């Protein structure tokens, strides 16, 4: 009798499992993702610095998923930047999608309004150029990264008292721009002397951006406003491969009108050195 009850229970359990297996299978639905039908959006990369000859706007459009990554600029846009309490500057297209204003140099503490009109679309953005924080020096040090010892750039600067300073660093090795994003704020370093290490992650030992003795280095230090910091921070979160990140999304843009990208009014300082 006991054996009969056990066999009956086992048969009933198998029947339940089979029922739910069929139920779950019947709920499956094949989803086809059409990655090439998304509406194209304009992409804006606009900068104004405190150095003449650096004001630039790159204007392009998004591509289909399987297209190449070659930049194809959008021509025919009317682009202006108005300085707070100052003049209106019109940008000139020098090549498809690339617009420049060689005489425009910004001033720390002032706001700048960007206006772009292209093919019946209007985009605007505002960025305030922070006060300049001096870049004291740069040098390299040997640092252990996992099992390899690599040369790392150190950037030295004094953060001023009062929170709210935001920084971006751009590194070039033998004129090649490092893809790693280097951004920092003063949430935990307010008013302190900063020695910021620009750690980078090369794919292998043959990577051309690995720093070696004799290489030529260039480091740009940008003082950026909080909204531009949010753009680069959100972009870094989406691209650094951290499994704890939220679902990937477009970076937080300060551009109004539906375009992707950013407008940054920032200070610019450059240091160059030969790696010992």
Distance between the termini: 88 Å
- The helix/strand order is HEEEEEEEEEEEEEEEHEE
Beta-strand content: 35-45%
Gyration radius, to the nearest Å?
26 Å
- Molecular shape: globular
The main β sheet shows up as: 9 strands, mixed
Overall pLDDT score: 86
- Helical amount: 10-25%
Beta-strand segment tally: 17
Count the helices. How many? 2
Structural class: mainly beta
Q: Spans with pLDDT under 50 lasting ≥5 residues?
A: 1-9, 22-26
What is the compact description of this entry?
This protein is mainly beta. The chain has helices spanning 2-27, 226-239, and strands at residues 42-49, 56-61, 78-83, 88-90, 92-95, 98-100, 111-118, 121-128, 135-145, 148-158, 166-173, 176-177, 182-185, 193-198, 216-224, 255-256, 260-274.
Give keywords.
14% helix, 2 helices, disordered N terminus, 41% strand, 5-stranded antiparallel β-sheet, 9-stranded mixed β-sheet, single chain, globular, mainly beta, 276 residues
Architecture blueprint of SSEs:
Elements: H1 2-27, E1 42-49, E2 56-61, E3 78-83, E4 88-90, E5 92-95, E6 98-100, E7 111-118, E8 121-128, E9 135-145, E10 148-158, E11 166-173, E12 176-177, E13 182-185, E14 193-198, E15 216-224, H2 226-239, E16 255-256, E17 260-274
